[in-house]
Specification:
Elements (H helix, E strand, L loop, with lengths): L1 H24 L15 E4 L2 E4 L4 E7 L2 E6 L5 H9 L8 E2 L4 E4 L5 H38 L5 H34 L2
Antiparallel strand pairs: 1-2, 3-4, 4-6, 5-6
Helix pairs in contact: 1-3, 1-4, 3-4
Length: 185
């Protein structure tokens, strides 16, 4: 029963790591990437719809994204959504598609991005610690109900601490690599 609980905690921590990877992919690094637009929602028939469901996204060169809507009538809404997404992007509408030039990041903007990255990573570290806390409470409850021995409780608490430490180390490594990528000119 304790191993199942630990496996569940490990699965949840892997999910936290995957979520961090997905969130970091949306951070601008000065290079064009279709993941930059993952969180942008377009008001399509009064429904917030992700851009990737309304258009084909592509990288035409290292500094330009191309957004080609399946339905050309939605081009203006996509343009508006990208501009209002607070990404600092200004699409160029040629009537059939949008070209989104990715401007070079200023030093000040890079530092802001790194601060934002640190906030995101800290939130994910906290999530990992919360998973550890919740799992430890389950083990303490099991001990109280005499379902496991004190030795088993100590062993499982140590195992959870190791799992948490490993997860946080991986999160920090991901953060360090992304920070290098952002600060690279």
């Amino acid at each position: 029963m304790t191993q199942e609980t630990i496996k569940e905690a490990k699965r949840r921590m892997e999910k936290v790591e995957g979520d961090l990877r997905a969130e970091m992919a949306t951070l601008r690094t000065g290079r064009a990437s279709v993941t930059l637009l993952d969180h942008v929602k377009v008001d399509y028939f009064d429904t917030p719809t992700p851009i990737k469901e309304l258009a084909k996204l592509a990288v035409s060169d290292p500094t330009t994204l191309v957004v080609q809507p399946w339905d050309p009538s939605v081009l203006a809404q996509i343009d508006k959504a990208i501009r209002s997404a607070d990404l600092g992007l200004n699409p160029v509408n040629d009537g059939k598609l949008l070209r989104v030039p990715i401007p070079a990041l200023t030093e000040e903007r890079r530092k802001e991005m790194v601060k934002h990255l640190h906030k995101i990573v800290e939130a994910h570290r906290t999530s990992a610690r919360n998973i550890r806390r919740d799992t430890n409470e389950v083990f303490k409850k099991m001990l109280k109900e005499k379902k496991i021995s004190e030795d088993d409780e100590r062993r499982t608490l140590d195992e959870m601490q190791k799992l948490t430490d490993q997860t946080i180390a991986r999160l920090d490594e991901l953060s360090k690599n992304k920070e290098k990528e952002i600060l690279a000119v």
